[in-house]
Specification:
Elements: H1 8-14, E1 48-52, H2 67-76, E2 81-83, E3 89-91, E4 94-99, E5 105-110, E6 115-117, E7 123-126, H3 129-141, H4 157-161, E8 172-176, E9 179-183, H5 191-194, H6 205-209, E10 241-247, E11 251-256, E12 270-275, H7 282-289, E13 295-297, H8 303-313, E14 318-319, E15 326-331, E16 339-340, E17 343-347, H9 353-363, H10 366-375, H11 378-386, H12 413-424, H13 445-460, E18 468-475, H14 479-495, E19 500-507, H15 509-514, E20 525-531, H16 539-542, H17 569-575, H18 577-588, H19 594-610, E21 614-619, E22 624-627, H20 658-670
Parallel strand pairs: 1-12, 18-19
Antiparallel strand pairs: 2-3, 4-5, 5-9, 6-7, 8-9, 10-11, 11-12, 13-22, 14-22, 15-20, 15-21, 16-17
Helix pairs in contact: 10-13, 11-14, 12-19, 18-19
Length: 674
């Protein structure tokens, strides 16, 4: 998921009731105005051109949780709410909403006049409350990848997925054509923030069911349903853009939807994205320099390119903003595959059977993990992408964006995590331990050696032999990705000589994409697992590691089991995930005191860090870049899909200088929280 950085004012506005519980939906800000108050004509209306790196899998936006799908469909279909340029939640297809006293009933008034159109731009039907009911039912019956967001929140939705109740008993109702009501299982004061994600978007039932017998509500059969096919006519459109051209691993193009309800705020007539596989990073800047792209990163590892960039665009090279998306290095705790996909005779791992068994035991040993944790100079890894000058800028030291929410006294969430770590282990985490972005917080080779010696003693008693062999699968098509993996191998083997050996397994983008279940994780370490928040509460991050239902369990090599004990329960128990769950559940139970809720979530997250159950890595952004995109014109949200939209964005006639950027930033910051 591609999510943008949430500034502090936005955090206060968007946290769970952090500033107010006002249920009025703000209308999007009007066009730029001149000093006299009338609409300014100084609006750029240029096309946007850039790249994309992976073909979309599906346009069934109600089903998919993948960024490679949602970054497109979020421009094709609107939901109830979206963020504006300042991080405020504003009305999209909802004009307003009301909440009852205990936050168990949310009632939305749907905007009249919004329409569905075909890929030819022809009006198909009005958007109504009934479309949201149909959308959720389709998501439930097709077992949406994002259903977890609301499955246990909306009344009887989980029971419906289990066949225990009829659909009319589920807590979603169209009270009339333009009134939509959700009834929840328990008080959920942040429910409105969930509407920014795709599982609660609408679908026109007639169109859906025209796409095959298997699309009909009540009798789902994904094998006989073509809704969401990656083609222009695979869906209807109610959003800002319509897909006008798609060719696999070649090009994706959008055209502005002339019938869009908010067409006056769509300033980019056409969007063109060309396929880029990562094999030639310098082609991005070269393409910008030739006028082919609207923006580009400026990498410093090619001296000639960097020199050209500084000579031509020195007053316009800027450091891009970091985002709310977090990337980390995952342990695959229960690895079950060592061969190439579809070829069980081709073993891609250099490990012997004994080494495989030893590695499995080592990964479940806390001291071993902490040795790797403290020996990992993440800045050296990141420098392979952004160069030495920027190697610290986008480092992230927490799972949750450190300034995602703040307490009523203004304490940042990251500081709560730091405090919890200090209380748990004051020797390793001194008071005031800084977990903000841009800090190399954990790198400590001396402490790493202490834990390595402890691990050797504990594992040696079990017959484990050293060095431990760790496989790390890498997309060989990405030059920088390979260099980053090699940098990790170098720092580990230098700091922990004779303790560990990192085997880099070169793969390709297709194979990497196929590693999407616990049983297909053909590696011991997965470098660059990523997650972006879906709503405005720390739960959106911390829940992904839940041992029974965490959405990112597969990137730990563990299976999602719902509420039942699974076959890998022993592994989960051994690494401490059930202790983590107890801490997490205690936080979730607090619904009337945000300060306490955030503190308890921070304690749960601190447990993950203190037990090295993942290795913090980076966020997005923090690169040298050049751009014609007018800063701060795009929608801006730390969660949901708003930041993937081209609505409101403007592309200038010329490159934006840093002087212009700073002036626009000052104006933007002056309006935060309004």
């Amino acid at each position: 998921m591609n999510k943008k950085h949430l500034w502090l004012a936005g955090a206060c506005l968007l946290a769970v009731g952090g500033c107010s519980n006002d249920s009025e939906v703000k209308e999007p800000e009007n066009k730029p105005q001149d000093e006299g108050g009338s609409e300014s004509t100084d609006v750029y209306r240029n096309d946007y051109n850039y790249v994309y790196s992976s073909d979309p899998d599906t346009f069934d936006y109600l089903y998919s949780f993948q960024a490679i799908d949602n970054e497109h469909t979020s421009n094709f279909v609107d939901g109830l709410l979206e963020h504006d340029q300042y991080g405020n939640l504003v009305g999209a297809l909802a004009e307003s909403y009301e909440v009852n006293d205990d936050s168990t009933v949310f009632t939305f008034k749907i905007r009249e006049g919004a329409t569905w159109v075909t890929d030819e731009g022809e009006e198909y039907a009005d958007v109504t409350a009934h479309d949201f009911v149909a959308g959720l039912r389709h998501a439930a019956e097709f077992q949406s990848q994002t259903l977890y967001l609301v499955q246990y929140t909306i009344k009887n939705l989980d029971a419906y997925t289990k066949g225990e109740v009829e659909w009319d008993e589920v807590g979603i109702k169209a009270l009339d054509d333009y009134t939509l009501e959700y009834t929840l299982e328990e008080p959920t004061p942040y429910f409105h923030t969930l509407t920014t994600y795709s599982t609660l978007m609408p679908v026109n039932q007639e169109f859906l069911e025209s796409k095959g017998e298997g699309c009909k509500l009540g009798s789902p059969d994904p094998g006989n349903c073509s809704f969401g096919e990656v083609a222009a006519d695979g869906i209807l459109y109610n959003g800002a853009y319509i897909l006008s051209n798609y060719a696999s691993k070649s090009v994706i193009e959008y055209t502005a939807n002339e019938n869009y309800w908010d067409a006056e705020h769509v300033y980019i007539p056409k969007v063109k994205l060309v396929y880029y596989n990562g094999s030639d990073p310098d082609s991005l800047f070269n393409g910008f320099d030739k006028g082919e792209y609207s923006a580009a990163p400026v990498y410093t590892d090619n001296a000639a390119i960097y020199k050209t960039a500084k000579e031509k665009y020195g007053d316009a090279i800027y450091i891009s903003r970091t985002t709310s998306t977090t990337f980390w290095i995952s342990w695959i705790f229960d690895r079950n595959i060592y061969h190439a996909p579809g070829n069980e005779t081709q073993d891609v791992s250099p490990q012997t059977d004994k080494q495989k068994a030893d590695t499995s035991l080592a990964k479940q040993n806390t001291a071993f993990r902490k040795a790797i944790f403290y020996a990992s100079d993440i800045s050296a890894v990141n420098s392979q992408y952004v160069g030495e000058d920027l190697k610290l800028g986008r480092l992230r030291n927490t799972l949750t964006q450190p300034d995602f929410v703040l307490t009523s006294e203004g304490t940042l969430y990251g500081d709560l995590v730091s405090k919890a770590l200090t209380q748990t282990n004051p020797t390793e985490y001194p008071e005031g331990f800084d977990l903000s972005d841009g800090q190399l917080a954990y790198y400590n080779p001396e402490l790493a050696l202490q834990y390595a010696n402890q691990a050797k003693e504990e594992l040696g008693a079990l017959g484990v032999e050293f060095p431990i062999q760790l496989d790390a699968i890498v997309n060989g098509e990405s030059e920088k990705g390979v260099k980053a993996a090699q940098a990790l191998a170098d720092v580990l083997e230098t700091n922990l000589d004779g303790f560990v050996k990192l085997n880099i397994i070169l793969s390709d983008s297709t194979t990497m994409s196929s590693m999407n279940t616990a049983d297909t994780m053909n590696t011991d370490l997965y470098i660059g697992t990523g997650w972006g928040p879906d709503y405005g509460d720390p739960k959106t991050y911390v829940d992904i590691m839940d041992p029974d239902s965490g959405d990112m369990l597969k990137y730990l090599g563990l299976n999602w089991t719902g509420s039942e004990v699974g076959e890998d329960a022993a592994v989960k128990e051994a690494i401490g995930l059930y202790e983590f769950k107890a801490l997490k559940d205690a936080a979730e139970a607090v619904i009337d005191d945000n300060d306490k809720r955030f503190e308890l979530y921070a304690q749960a997250e601190a447990y993950l860090l203190d037990n090295a159950l993942f290795i913090p890595y980076i966020t997005q952004g923090g690169n040298y870049s050049v751009s014609k995109v007018v800063p701060y014109t795009n929608l801006y949200g730390a969660y949901g899909l708003s930041d993937s939209k081209y609505k409101y964005m403007q592309v200038s006639d010329s490159i934006v200088t840093n002087e212009e950027r700073e002036a626009l930033k000052a104006d933007w910051e002056s309006k935060l929280g309004e």
